[in-house]
């Protein structure tokens, strides 16, 4: 394979085939008869090599254009599998499938053994993955920065109905086949030690040294992120923590071999495991270490790159922008100050101007339990210099507040970055240090301004804006739903993949009976795929003619899987009392992980599984109702689930779900939503039209008004259906040999203070569920609903979301790579 430096790998079928054999044999030392895992790795290397060609061209184009750059800082990137997606983006699916076929190999079987890169918990991490896909497709010079966790999101098993967590050793082979290690860009991150002040006797300049710190190496691993059928390949840079070699030597000299090895472990633990909490903080020291490690390594990396092509920092702010994915990376505000002041020797005011012109913060939640704070004592011990800087930022900030509202001490206390117990409020740090603060759906952004961040909004109204979330149509439509893709390619032309507004043209086919039949055929095939997954994972056989009613997402009280479970019990009670006139067969699908320490969420999983056992085992129920809990909900599972869904459950307590993105994946794939007026549901309903959305429940303001004097018993007393449901639950019908198991769940929904007001929404939920069932029984009517949902989902492409970020916040120029 003699090649000069300008040549590129060929993409014809024969070259792909030969390369595949070469990688398998000479790189991995395996043959076609070897385990399919090796063939998967060989194929990824074939594709990665092609990406490297485009990657180099992208670097060259960026080098030449020197465009303004964007950096997406995120503790999570929930990527899932990549092979199918990259083949799609490179336009190589057919050639690769044929090349493999000639070798007697099946592409789908090979794709199926790639493990999910599960470096995230749920929506927030998946959003980051969709964002970088769209940025590459839009040719925006945006780089992702994250952590290369050795263990990603845990694998969920269900044993006797309970969630059991297993470690996800996704790097079992020692490496991720898509990544390229770039040891030459290793950075050093410091923890602990103390600060010492120096005054230069000649200049009088005061400087601070951070001394005696423990040093940890940050080694970057780059993952290529190709755009859709363009030449752009952007970079996701993931940091791996490694102990200093010299550190080890010092300890050896002191004769403490054991302590040296243990300390090495402590350093390398930083990127060992993803914290499995979604929408709640962990408060653990190791988590703070992870956050600072990400932020410090990434900012040092950006500054080092800047200095390769630029002198000084006068134009840095015009040429760089950082988007903070929630408060997790908000130490970036303090760390960029530290780097500019201590290492680049800029005066405070100049450094602060740069920070507040380059940092932008995205809020993801209104839940108080998710708002991060770090104890002052921990901050001083672990990050003495950044903490000093945070104090100074706060001192100057509060002086401004005092000028604007003289004498209003309470307001100063409310706004302060440092709280009454010395804790650092990360959201306050992010807001003070950023020029932009955005929520992730219209309703959420309004609630931020009116509630949580109202004091900040009064101070800086111009900082606040909304950027409604989206999902990438490449993964969530073109790759996940090949039947739909073929139909859309045929009637809209392939351009829909990068211009999702074109879906609206589907409305022109509403009266076309052939199109409508094809639409139903595609849905049926997708439901059969989902039914096969259900049977494989749970052993339950379901009929593909039934209404597939699906709620998959993290298990959380605010998401109200419990409300859905109560509805299932209601349907079961109806069957048992013979109330089955005009019955519509239904398969209720649940899936989702509970944080391992979240007791109530784990109980909800157990309840669902116990209900499933009773319902599915009752011959009187039969096909009228099936209930399944699909274990280990993940990106690759969702790729089968969303296309096979009829009814999308988005039933959170209004005002609690910031946006949701699962709701968008379902809509694009032709599911109809039953939901509350919460998060992006509001905009989904606006787009699809109120007659095409099953709305129920209290509105956000009504929930707020109700909670202080909420009495669940009133709702039980007024509703015989709810009484029947509560009776089945309280009599122990679903926990016959597990006495008292669900007492805490029952007490929760009956508590005066139940913040999720589950029983208050029961009646309207049950009524609207019945409307949905009757709508499903009308085959033609439902076909129209389904087509309209896809046709009107164009807004929810992350291509639109990224264009909004770019127009209003980043202001980057697209760079053509050629
Ligand atoms: C889309 C997605 C989510 C987010 O779902 P929501 O319903 O918006 O909470 C979580 N996990 C996975 C694996 C996803 O694909």
Automatic annotation (TrEMBL):
Phosphorylase is an important allosteric enzyme in carbohydrate metabolism. Enzymes from different sources differ in their regulatory mechanisms and in their natural substrates. However, all known phosphorylases share catalytic and structural properties. Allosteric enzyme that catalyzes the rate-limiting step in glycogen catabolism, the phosphorolytic cleavage of glycogen to produce glucose-1-phosphate, and plays a central role in maintaining cellular and organismal glucose homeostasis. Its EC number is 2.4.1.1. This is Alpha-1,4 glucan phosphorylase. It is found in: Cytoplasm. It catalyses: [(1->4)-alpha-D-glucosyl](n) + phosphate = [(1->4)-alpha-D-glucosyl](n-1) + alpha-D-glucose 1-phosphate. NCBIfam families: P_ylase. It comes from the Bacteria. The keyword Glycosyltransferase applies. Its cofactor is pyridoxal 5'-phosphate. It comes from Thiopseudomonas denitrificans. One of its GO terms (biological process) is glycogen catabolic process. CDD domains: GT35_Glycogen_Phosphorylase. The modification N6-(pyridoxal phosphate)lysine is found at residue 665.
């Amino acid at each position: 394979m003699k090649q000069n430096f300008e040549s590129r790998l060929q993409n014809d079928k024969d070259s792909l085939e030969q390369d595949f054999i070469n990688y398998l044999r000479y790189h991995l030392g395996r043959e076609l008869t070897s385990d399919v895992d090796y063939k998967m790795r060989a194929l990824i290397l074939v594709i990665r090599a092609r990406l490297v060609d485009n990657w180099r061209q992208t670097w060259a184009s960026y080098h030449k254009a020197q465009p303004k750059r964007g950096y997406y800082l995120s503790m999570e990137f929930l990527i899932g599998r990549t092979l199918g997606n990259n083949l799609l983006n490179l336009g190589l699916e057919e050639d690769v499938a044929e090349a493999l076929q000639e070798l007697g190999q099946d592409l789908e079987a090979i794709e199926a053994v790639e493990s999910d890169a599960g470096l995230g918990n749920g929506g927030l991490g998946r959003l980051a993955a969709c964002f970088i896909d769209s940025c590459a497709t839009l040719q925006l010079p945006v780089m992702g920065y994250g952590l290369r966790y050795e263990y990603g999101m845990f694998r969920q098993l269900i044993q006797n109905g309970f969630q059991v967590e297993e470690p996800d050793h996704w790097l079992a082979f020692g490496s991720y086949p898509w990544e390229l290690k770039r040891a030459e860009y290793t950075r050093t991150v410091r923890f602990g030690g103390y600060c010492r002040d120096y005054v230069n006797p000649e200049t009088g300049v005061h400087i601070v040294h951070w001394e005696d710190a423990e040093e940890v190496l940050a080694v970057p691993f780059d993952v290529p992120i190709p755009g859709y059928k363009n030449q752009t390949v952007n970079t996701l840079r993931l940091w791996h923590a490694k102990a200093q070699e010299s550190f080890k030597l010092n300890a050896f000299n002191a004769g403490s071999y054991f302590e040296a090895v243990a300390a090495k472990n402590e350093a390398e633990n930083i990127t060992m495991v993803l914290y499995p909490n979604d929408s709640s903080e962990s408060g653990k020291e190791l988590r703070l270490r992870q956050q600072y490690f990400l932020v410090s390594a990434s900012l040092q990396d950006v500054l080092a790159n800047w200095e390769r092509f630029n002198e000084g920092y006068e134009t840095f702010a015009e040429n760089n922008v950082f988007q903070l994915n929630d408060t997790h990376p908000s130490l970036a505000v303090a760390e960029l100050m530290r780097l500019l002041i201590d290492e680049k020797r800029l005066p405070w005011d100049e450094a602060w101007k740069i920070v507040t012109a380059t940092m932008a913060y995205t809020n993801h939640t209104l839940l108080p339990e998710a708002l991060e704070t770090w104890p002052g004592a921990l901050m001083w011990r672990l990050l003495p210099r950044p903490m000093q800087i945070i104090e100074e930022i706060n001192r100057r900030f509060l002086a401004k507040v005092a000028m604007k509202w003289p004498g209003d001490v309470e307001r100063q206390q409310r706004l302060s970055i440092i709280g009454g117990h010395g804790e650092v409020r990360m959201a306050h740090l992010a807001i003070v240090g950023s020029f932009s603060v955005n929520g992730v759906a219209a309703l959420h952004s309004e609630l931020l301004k009116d509630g949580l961040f109202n004091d900040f909004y009064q101070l800086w109204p111009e900082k606040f804006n909304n950027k409604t979330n989206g999902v990438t149509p490449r993964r969530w439509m073109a790759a996940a739903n090949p039947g739909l893709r073929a139909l859309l390619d045929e009637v809209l032309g392939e351009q829909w993949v990068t211009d999702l507004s074109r879906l609206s043209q589907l409305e022109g086919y509403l009266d076309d009976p052939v199109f409508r039949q094809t639409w139903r055929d595609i849905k049926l095939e997708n439901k059969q795929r989902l039914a096969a997954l259900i049977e494989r994972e749970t052993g339950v056989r379901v009929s593909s003619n039934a209404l597939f009613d699906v709620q998959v997402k993290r298990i959380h009280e605010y998401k109200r899987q419990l409300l859905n479970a109560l509805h299932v019990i209601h349907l079961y009670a109806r069957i048992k009392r013979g109330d089955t006139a005009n019955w519509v067969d239904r398969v209720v699908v649940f899936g989702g992980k509970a944080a391992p320490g979240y007791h109530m969420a784990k109980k909800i999983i157990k309840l669902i599984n116990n209900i499933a056992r009773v319902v599915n085992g009752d011959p009187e129920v039969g096909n009228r109702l099936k209930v399944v809990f699909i274990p280990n909900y993940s990106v690759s599972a969702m790729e089968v689930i969303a296309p096979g869904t009829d009814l999308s459950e988005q039933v959170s307590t209004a005002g609690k779900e910031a946006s949701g993105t699962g709701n968008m994946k379902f809509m694009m794939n032709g599911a109809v939503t039953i939901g509350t007026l919460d998060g992006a549901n509001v905009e989904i309903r606006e787009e699809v039209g109120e007659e095409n959305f099953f709305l129920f429940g209290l509105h956000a303001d009504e929930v707020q008004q109700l909670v202080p004097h909420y009495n669940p018993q009133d709702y039980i007393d007024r509703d015989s259906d709810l009484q029947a449901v509560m009776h089945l639950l309280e009599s122990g019908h679903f926990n016959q040999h597990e006495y008292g198991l669900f007492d805490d769940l029952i007490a929760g929904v009956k508590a005066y203070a139940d913040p999720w007001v589950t029983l208050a929404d029961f009646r309207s939920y049950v009524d609207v569920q019945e409307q949905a069932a009757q709508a499903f029984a009308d085959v033609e009517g439902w076909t129209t609903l389904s087509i309209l949902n896809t046709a009107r989902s164009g807004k929810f492409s992350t291509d639109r979301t990224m264009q909004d970020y770019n127009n209003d916040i980043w202001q980057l120029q697209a760079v053509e790579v050629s």
